[in-house]
TrEMBL record:
Family label: Belongs to the metallo-beta-lactamase superfamily.
Organism of this sequence: Sphingomonas rosea
Name the UniProt record assigns to this protein: MBL fold metallo-hydrolase
PANTHER family hit by this protein: QUORUM-QUENCHING LACTONASE YTNP-RELATED, QUORUM-QUENCHING LACTONASE YTNP-RELATED-RELATED
Coiled-coil intervals, chain numbering: none
Pfam families per UniProt: Lactamase_B
Metallo-beta-lactamase domain boundaries: 87-275
Keywords: Hydrolase, Metal-binding, Signal, Zinc
Signal peptide (UniProt feature, chain positions): 1-24
Length: 298
């Protein structure tokens, strides 16, 4: 198909701008943390990597309503109005026979993250990890797949992500080097597939082309890792209809956030949200406006 040069140039610029927004993050130093939670016969452990303070400047949160409306809402919740704090980290899953599973890997280690220190605190060495499940290909989720010299950080691990997400990761400038380092270890799955015993992928559309949550089940207990369906435990829950600058397809991201939060709150689903305050495990409850966060542990 022929594409008019101007249209092509414009869409490349837009794609580059979207990529830049997704990676324009200033990691802040945090202490390593690895807090265990029992889930049936499994042990799930949020492992902290860093923090991403997002300025309230209209670039990310409430792009459609503006910083004044965002600040007014934050004030009603007793929150600082100039910066929205986000956690960065992954989720370790142990207890599946023969597997040590890590969901997401945090930022590029050159940014000073604590993922490896947090894994060490959990008693896990990089060579122990057998499977890495990726929710999506943004730098704060796949950056830790490589070490500071750009080599694979988890030498034995198979890296699993949805087929459309791998297609996206391979074509983004920002993730080209990581894609090259891991390509021989990547195994893709169809959106919604069973990925490992007890872990099913959940397509959560809009944030990136193949953005995927993971439902982890053991016996009668289950936990849903929602990836980047919601970023701020205050704004994304109170106003799920507000536009998020990090969403690649903003309208679809909004629709997914609205429908998923309604389902999660309606069913009382236990979730892990990697960007909510550490450890990020809890429930979403109805509130006014929207929803509120109820941490299961602190
Ligand atoms: Zn993210």
């Amino acid at each position: 198909m022929r594409v008019a040069p101007f249209t092509l140039a414009l869409s490349l610029v837009l794609a580059a701008a979207a990529g830049a927004a997704a990676f324009a993050q200033t990691p802040a130093p945090v202490a390593p943390a690895a807090q265990d939670v029992r889930l049936g016969a499994l042990r799930v452990t949020p492992v902290r990597d860093g923090a991403n303070p997002v300025p309230n400047d209209g670039s990310v949160f409430g792009k459609d309503v503006g910083p004044a409306a965002v600040a007014a809402f934050l004030r009603t919740k007793g929150q600082p109005t100039d910066t929205i704090p986000l956690n960065v980290g992954g989720l370790l899953v142990r207890g599946i026979p023969g597997r040590v599973v890590l969901i997401d890997t945090g930022n590029d280690p050159k940014k000073g993250g604590q993922l490896m220190a947090s894994l060490a605190r959990a008693g896990v060495r990089p060579g122990d990890v057998t499977d890495i499940l990726i929710t999506h290909g943004h730098g704060d989720h796949i950056g830790g797949l490589v070490d500071a010299s750009g080599r694979r950080a988890f030498p034995r691990a198979t890296v699993r992500m949805s087929a459309p997400e791998w297609a996206y990761v391979r074509t983004q400038d920002a993730s080209k080097e990581i894609a090259g380092a891991i390509s021989a270890r990547v195994r893709t799955f169809a959106p919604g597939a069973a990925v490992l015993p007890g872990i099913v992928a959940v397509p959560l559309r809009g944030h990136t082309p193949g953005h995927s949550g993971y439902r982890i089940t053991s016996g009668r207990q289950s936990l849903l890792d929602i990836g980047d369906t919601a970023h701020s435990s205050v704004i994304s829950l109170g106003h799920p209809e507000w536009t998020i600058g990090y969403d690649g397809n903003k309208m679809l991201g909004e629709r997914t956030r609205i429908t998923e939060l309604a389902r999660i709150a309606g069913t009382g689903t236990l979730i892990f949200a990697p960007h909510f305050p550490y450890p990020g495990i809890g429930r979403v409850v109805r509130s006014r406006p929207g929803y509120a966060w109820q941490p299961a542990l602190r």
